[in-house]
């Protein structure tokens, strides 16, 4: 007795649904729990290793935070210096293992210590204030560069052989220029010569930080030039990567079949070609989001921007262990979280992940 084939809807599209008929009939996506669980365990182990390295690495440096603090403040008595070492857990009576256990104990309670560089303020408060500026500026610029580059690369790849191909060498040229040179050139032209934008800082002198249109406009005015240089420096990579993936995807059979069925070009471009070509871009975008926090030292130094990158540089020069560990921890968490989100997106966008588990 022959099996009866399942009845598919009249508007069923085999190209769009995929090759697995059972998944097309059920009309739902199977959640790859095993894959997600394995990735979560991997990231938990990576987080433990990163936090452990984060603890030991500053202590391998010559000197300590108290010695650097005493070099800047020579009027501190020896008794006060010993009290500071005891407060920071750096006294000679505390072993390195005890410091490690205490560090984990404070970390699990959300206590990252105090910063000597910023007048004994909590590290969470200092890092939080700088993190807002970094995420607002670099996060927005990275998202905008990714969107423009991905959409532009898809269009250039779709219209291969046209004049739009000139956009690839032009944008790639700016990506090859060292960022600090691009930033200094932008300052020299648009700030010094033309006077259109401020040279640096996040807002003007005398402006009170508050939720007002005057303050927001001043922040946008100060942040336009560094944001524009970030977009210009990274746009070529996004556009070139998406364009190359589009050239690969356009030779696939499902794109050819979709065009042979007479589908509109816009639908073939965005729902078939670009949808599959964007998968490698997602992983790269996740890495870019993760390094938003720590990869902006050069930009913030060039433009004197009060972000996490400049904060890390100042903390390293001052040997402020607690502040260095706090910044490193934020960078580590952002990178791991961004990669975890990319893996989750892959699991739902790429059917091969679900087929592997099945």
Number of distinct helices: 17
Shape: globular
- For this structure, what is the CATH class? Mainly Alpha
Strand content: under 5%
Q: Mind describing the biggest β-sheet?
A: 2 strands, antiparallel
Radius of gyration: 26 Å
CATH architecture: Orthogonal Bundle
Distance between the termini: 28 Å
Order of helices and strands: HHHHHHEEHHHHHHHHHHH
Structural category:
mainly alpha
Strand order of the largest sheet: 1-2
CATH superfamily: MetI-like
Q: What is the helical fraction, as a range of percent?
A: over 70%
Mean pLDDT across all residues, rounded? Answer: 77
Low-confidence stretches: 1-6, 14-27
- Can you tell me the number of structural domains? 1
CATH names the topology as MetI-like fold
How many strands?
2
Quick structural summary:
With 358 residues, the chain is mainly alpha-helical. The chain contains 17 helices and two strands. It has helices at residues 14-17, 21-26, 33-59, 65-72, 78-87, 96-108, 123-158, 167-176, 179-193, 213-249, 253-260, 265-277, 279-290, 297-302, 308-318, 321-349, 351-357, and strands at 114-115, 121-122.
Can you walk me through this structure?
It is a single chain. A hairpin with a 5-residue loop joins strand 1 (114-115) and strand 2. The longest helix has 37 residues, at 213-249. The protein has a single domain, classed as MetI-like (MetI-like fold, Orthogonal Bundle), CATH 1.10.3720.10. Helix 15 (308-318) packs antiparallel against helix 16. Mean pLDDT is 77; it is low at 1-6 and 14-27. The protein has a two-stranded antiparallel ribbon. Helices cover 70% and strands 1% of the residues. The protein is an all-alpha fold and 358 residues long. It contains 17 helices and 2 strands.
């Amino acid at each position: 007795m022959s099996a009866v084939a399942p009845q598919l809807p009249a508007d069923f599209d085999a190209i769009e649904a995929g090759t697995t008929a059972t998944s097309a009939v059920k009309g739902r996506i199977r959640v790859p729990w095993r894959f997600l669980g394995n990735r979560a365990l991997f990231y938990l182990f990576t987080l433990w290793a990163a936090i452990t390295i984060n603890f030991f690495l500053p202590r391998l440096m010559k000197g300590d935070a108290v010695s650097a603090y005493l070099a800047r403040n020579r009027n501190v008595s020896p008794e006060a210096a010993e009290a500071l070492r005891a407060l920071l857990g750096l006294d000679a009576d505390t072993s390195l293992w005890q410091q490690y256990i205490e560090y984990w104990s404070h970390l699990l309670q959300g206590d990252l210590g105090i910063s000597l560089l910023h007048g004994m303020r909590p590290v969470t408060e200092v890092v939080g204030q700088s993190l807002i500026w970094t995420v607002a500026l670099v996060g927005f610029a990275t998202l905008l560069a990714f969107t423009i580059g991905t959409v532009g690369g898809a269009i250039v790849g779709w219209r291969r052989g046209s004049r739009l191909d000139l956009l690839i060498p032009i944008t790639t040229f700016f990506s090859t220029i060292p960022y600090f040179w691009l930033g200094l050139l932008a300052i020299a032209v648009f700030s010094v010569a033309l006077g259109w934008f401020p040279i640096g800082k996040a807002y003007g002198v005398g402006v009170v930080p508050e939720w007002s249109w005057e303050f927001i406009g001043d922040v946008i005015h100060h942040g336009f030039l560094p944001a524009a240089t970030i977009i210009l420096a990274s746009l070529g990579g996004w556009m070139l990567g998406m364009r190359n993936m589009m050239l690969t995807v356009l030779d696939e059979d499902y794109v050819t079949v979709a065009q042979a069925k007479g589908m509109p070009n816009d639908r073939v471009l965005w729902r078939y070609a670009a949808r599959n070509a964007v998968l490698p871009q997602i992983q790269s975008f996740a890495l870019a989001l993760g390094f938003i926090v720590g990869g902006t030292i050069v930009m913030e130094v060039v433009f004197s921007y009060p972000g996490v990158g400049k904060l890390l540089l100042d903390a390293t020069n001052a040997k402020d262990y607690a502040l260095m560990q706090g910044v490193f921890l934020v960078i580590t968490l952002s990178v791991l979280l961004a990669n975890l989100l990319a893996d989750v997106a892959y699991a739902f966008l790429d059917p091969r992940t679900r087929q592997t588990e099945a």
